[in-house]
Amino acid sequence: MTAAIIDGKAVAARTNEETAQAVAEFTDRTGTRPGLATILVGDDAASAVYVESKRRTSVRLGMADFHRHLPSTASRDDVARLLDELASDDAVSGILLQLPLPESLDTTGLVDLIPPSKDVDGLTTASAGLLARGLPGLRPCTPLGAVELLDSSEVTLSGSRVVVVGRSELVGRPLAQLLLQRDATVTTAHSRTQDLPAVTRDADVLVVAAGVPGLIGAEHVKKGAVVIDVGIHRTETGLAGDVRFDEVVGVASAITPVPGGVGPMTIAMLMRNTLTAAIMVSEPQQ
Ligand SMILES: Nc1nc2c(c(=O)[nH]1)N[C@@H](CN(C=O)c1ccc(C(=O)N[C@@H](CCC(=O)O)C(=O)O)cc1)CN2
């Protein structure tokens, strides 16, 4: 068996086209553009690339771009003041604090200064609470992107056994919640899980967000399972995921590549969330 490749670049391109169309309609209707504020603290090279890509995409889709770059020596108060300023700016629909922050800063405390209505990353404690309760709110981009890829491949989630490897606030935890809301039978595995291959081999759908290069090989995957690889690592030979693609492609029925899988969807979902945030403010539900 050779797995079908789930093309995240193509799905992201289609999603972005739809978002651009909806942004144009929103702008015609309201006379304003959705605005995305990106904040980069420090000089992490990968973070700078991701922020640049988010800004470029938002402008291409017709949004207003508000970018701020703070030095790695910025204090908690510096970041808090900036978040406060952007929170009270009506032209800013969404605020994104690029992670990771320099180690000296308290990530959760700062992220939680973003008002839930502008939390286009879906990472505040308030947004996590809304997700856990199944209430309307903005959801984290990478988990949304993974679910969107499964939908685009017409994978049935209701009743399926899904194993999520990883329990991070950014991906694993919110993804498990999103999948539960789609009536999947969800197991979360992590670094303390005993006999990981036995757990993952039970999965019809295996989503790997462990942050460990090449963690998952053929021995972890049931024949015909769908495999979504959320990992991105820079290695000497280029980008690689958490999944040993060359092995697993012979066992799975469908698989995402790295690069070109979940990564592009993260940015596409951020664009959609920014439009949603703008709509929520200009056309609040009764
Ligand atoms: N505030 C946030 N910080 C971080 C998030 C996030 O969702 N919000 N996620 C990651 C990084 N990230 C977005 O910020 C991100 C990672 C990867 C990609 C992507 O398109 N990857 C490409 C490869 C690009 C390359 O590195 O050459 C791919 O997989 O094809 C987009 C966004 C951590 N921080």
What attributes characterize this protein structure?
Rossmann fold, 10 helices, globular, binds ligand LMY7XDAE, EC 3.5.4.9
Notes on the structure:
- This protein has 286 residues and is of the alpha/beta class.
- It has 2 domains: 31-115, Leucine Dehydrogenase, chain A, domain 1 (Rossmann fold), CATH 3.40.50; 141-263, NAD(P)-binding Rossmann-like Domain (Rossmann fold, 3-Layer(aba) Sandwich).
- Helix content is 41%, strand content 16%.
- The protein has a 6-stranded parallel beta sheet with strand order 1-11-8-7-5-6.
- Helix 2 (45-60) packs across helix 10.
- 44% of the residues are buried.
- The mean pLDDT is 97.
- The structure holds ligand LMY7XDAE.
- The site of the ligand Nc1nc2c(c(=O)[nH]1)N[C@@H](CN(C=O)c1ccc(C(=O)N[C@@H](CCC(=O)O)C(=O)O)cc1)CN2 has 18 residues, from helix 2, strand 4, helix 6 and helix 10.
Q: What percentage of the residues does DSSP assign to strands (E)?
A: 15-25%
User: In the CATH hierarchy, what is the architecture of the largest domain at level 2?
Assistant: 3-Layer(aba) Sandwich
Q: Count of DSSP helices?
A: 10
Strand order, biggest sheet? 1-11-8-7-5-6
Note poorly predicted spans.
none
User: Can you tell me the CATH class of the largest domain?
Assistant: Alpha Beta
The overall number of domains is 2
- The CATH superfamily of the largest domain is identified as NAD(P)-binding Rossmann-like Domain
Tell me roughly what share of residues is in helical segments: 40-55%
Number of strands: 11
Write down the overall geometry.
globular
Average pLDDT: 97
Ends apart, CA distance between termini: 51 Å
Give the radius of gyration. 19 Å
Protein name: Bifunctional protein FolD
GO molecular function, one term: methenyltetrahydrofolate cyclohydrolase activity
GO cellular component, one term: cytosol
Function: Catalyzes the oxidation of 5,10-methylenetetrahydrofolate to 5,10-methenyltetrahydrofolate and then the hydrolysis of 5,10-methenyltetrahydrofolate to 10-formyltetrahydrofolate.
